[in-house]
Amino acid sequence: MGVLIDALGALIVGAILMMITFQFQIQDTAHRMIHSVDLLDSGQEAMDELGKIISMAGIGVDPDSVVVTATDSTFAFRTRWNYGTGLLMVTSNVLQISLGDSTAVGRPIVITQGGATFNTLARILWIEELAFEFYRLDDSMVSFPTTATSRGDIRFLDMMMTLRKPPPRLGAQPLRTRIASRLYLMNSYLQGG
Questions:
Q1: How many domains does one find in the chain?
Q2: 126, 165 contact by CB (below 8 A)
Q3: Neighbouring-strand partners of residue 129
Q4: Rounded CA gap, 165 and 41, in Å?
Q5: Main-chain dihedrals φ then ψ at residue 80, nearest 5 degrees
Q6: Closest to 107 measured CA to CA, from 121, 89, 94
Q7: Contact yes or no for 122/106 (Cβ under 8 A)
């Protein structure tokens, strides 16, 4: 009889431990999923905002002089659109997109126009890297470093963003996601055909 009671006790204790382990695994998976969704939302918001800004490249500017700077981490272009006011200007100005210095919550996207720095996209957190690849009208890639001639040929670009967030549980791997988008400089694309 004692053996039967010992066996039943072991079975009950084992079942309780299995349920506790299973519950911790479910909680860990749920936390990782919540953090992943948050990370993807931040990345999508950043890509949408940058897409809207880049779509204004070349308004009222000769298509061969739109791109001012084209490196793997910085993109600057001419436009008559004013980022600060959202209105068209009489003269063109240069708008630059790059990443700021590293912080505890990633690197902020920095927009610079006419010497003024706008941190309106700094609310988007966890950005680790922002990279650009530039292409000509015939789909050939523009190699780095760019020259005035090769910058004049740029008609679209690929923008890649890497986001990194600390894990929800200590000792786990950080969460990373990469988002890519192809953006056309439509004003140059249509004018320079």
A1: 1
A2: yes
A3: 162
A4: 12
A5: -95, 0
A6: 121
A7: no
